[in-house]
Amino acid sequence: MTAGLAAIALLLVGAAILLFVNLPDANAFNARVERLFVENDDLTAQAEIKLLEILAQSGTAFSETLASYRFVIFVLLTFALAMLVAAVAFLLMLVQLNRRMGRIERKGIEVNSLVIARDQNAVHLNDFEFKLTAAAIETLSVLAEARMDDEVLSGAQIEAVISGRSAADCDEAAGATRIKRLRDSLGNQLVSELLVKNIAKRGYVLSIDKSVIRMQ
């Protein structure tokens, strides 16, 4: 990261140096006017002298204008360098964050304690407390019990356990809806997506160690 930013800074500094070197000399016009004075000392008429004075003033104005242009160019290059460095740093931070998120997703969320308090309609996840609806607590409790038995439940099986009906009489979409509402109740997308895993063609499971689960 540091090497990349340093390389970008060096490129911009090199471009600035080339730009300033190739800018015309601020005193070039004044030098030409001075040369006119020296080489044409026979210009003695009032109009000719006035013309030379105007040329001299124009040279001074040109010199001042070019100096202001140099300052403006310097400020713009400095601003461009700062913006480019900030953009690259931000991009690298995003890349690192995506890598960290990828590692978390591959590893799963690290839960040291999951306490389900049915009487309070709350779940304590590590040091965080989530207030859930009664339906969400029921869904989470079913998943927790299944996890302690090393089972993966389909949407129809989740609906069957909660409704008390046979799984054959339950719709898969009903269980999927309960899982969605549970995730919505948890609120934090990262927590909900990593806590409640969806295993393709099998069903849903809590992706935590069953030894950390406690029911109240």
End-to-end separation: 50 Å
Strand content: 5-15%
Overall shape: it is: rod-shaped
Q: Which series of helices and strands comes N to C?
A: HHHEEEHHHHEEE
Rg value:
37 Å
Task: Count the domains.
Answer: 2
Lateral strand order in the biggest sheet? 3-2-1-6
Helix proportion of residues, in percent?
A: 55-70%
The residue-averaged pLDDT reads 77
User: How many β strands by DSSP?
Assistant: 6
Taking pLDDT < 50 over at least 5 consecutive residues as the criterion, the unreliable ranges are: none
Task: Please tell me about this protein's structure.
This is OmpR/PhoB-type domain-containing protein. Keywords: Membrane, Transmembrane, Transmembrane helix. It comes from Limimaricola cinnabarinus. GO terms for molecular function: DNA binding. Helix content is 65%, strand content 11%. It is of the alpha+beta class and 216 residues long. The protein folds into 2 domains: 108 residues; 102 residues, Arc Repressor Mutant, subunit A (Orthogonal Bundle), CATH 1.10.10.10. The strands form 2 sheets. The protein has a 4-stranded mixed beta sheet, with helices on one face. A two-stranded antiparallel ribbon has the order 4-5. It is rod-shaped.
Q: What are the SSEs and their pairings?
A:
Blueprint: H1 2-22, H2 28-39, H3 46-107, E1 114-117, E2 122-125, E3 128-131, H4 134-148, H5 155-163, H6 172-186, H7 189-195, E4 196-199, E5 203-206, E6 213-215
Parallel strand pairs: 1-6
Antiparallel strand pairs: 1-2, 2-3, 4-5
GO biological process, one term: regulation of DNA-templated transcription
Keywords: Membrane, Transmembrane, Transmembrane helix
Transmembrane segments: 71-97
